[in-house]
Design goal:
By secondary structure, the chain is of the alpha+beta class. It has one domain (about 1-230). It is built from six helices and eight strands; from the N terminus they run H-H-H-H-H-E-E-E-E-H-E-E-E-E. A hairpin with a 7-residue loop joins strand 2 (about 135-140) and strand 3. The chain is globular, with a radius of gyration of 18 Å.
């Protein structure tokens, strides 16, 4: 019963983020990055900071996921998340170094990317669930230190859209750093426990939005939610 209550509370938080993403706000920024970088190779742990994440890099993958059925769309999002792939690659490296995994004996020939993709398959198969007409995978990034502590991929049933939510692990990334990267937010809002900075990309093919939750006490970024909704073709 307690676990069910906690799940309902978590879903309430997710639904609150979705309501922000589905709201309408200001015009799009002038440019965006369409690239997607993924860690490769084996060896030392890859250094990764919150500032290495760029929500605009997920836009092409959100567009693809929006056109796929629930589980396929979720898998496409997670497979192409730079945050998740970096986290899982570092986790695999740590297991190799501790001789907990046969990869330690394979050296440079170990196919790390294949192991990461295999792990993502397991995450989707074991963690996918459906609630409130949504298909969801919610995965905790428990091995710290890492700048993010949780990743959530969502798709609404019978809707051509896709969502990705990332929770930051601590209060080390600030709203000032956020604005240095993306510029001033196109819209802001203040709620009882947090404020939000909103950004938007608007093209002929889709509308994509990013909502960053900010702690009003210390100005730290707590969470980011990204959405994409294709436009109807005439």
């Amino acid at each position: 019963m307690i676990s069910a209550l906690l799940m309902d509370m978590k879903l309430a938080t997710l639904l609150a983020m979705l309501s922000l993403l589905l709201s309408v706000f200001a015009p799009p920024p002038s440019s965006a990055s369409d690239g997607s970088n993924q860690p490769s190779g084996t060896g030392a742990q890859v250094e990764f900071s919150a500032d290495d994440f760029d929500w605009r890099e997920m836009v092409p993958h959100l567009l693809i996921a929006a056109g796929l059925p629930g589980e396929q769309g979720i898998k496409a999002l997670l497979e192409n998340s730079k945050v998740l792939r970096t986290y899982l690659a570092n986790e695999a490296r740590a297991e190799c170094e501790a001789a907990k995994n046969p990869c330690a004996a394979k050296g440079d020939g170990f196919m790390l990317e294949g192991e990461v993709s295999k792990k993502i398959d397991e995450i989707v198969q074991e963690g996918i669930f459906r609630r409130h007409k949504m298909t969801i995978v919610d995965y905790r990034l428990a091995r710290q230190p890492f700048p993010f502590s949780e990743i959530v991929a969502l798709k609404r049933e019978k809707q051509r859209d896709a969502y990705l939510i990332l929770e930051l692990a601590d209060h080390s990334y600030t709203a000032a750093q956020l604005q240095a990267k993306y510029g001033a937010p196109q819209d802001t809002n203040i709620f009882q426990w947090y404020s939000v900075y909103k950004y938007r990309l608007d093209t002929a093919r889709y509308t994509s939005k990013a909502v960053f939750e900010i702690d009003p006490v210390d100005g730290a970024v707590m969470r980011v939610a990204i959405s994409l909704k294709p436009k109807n073709r005439h």
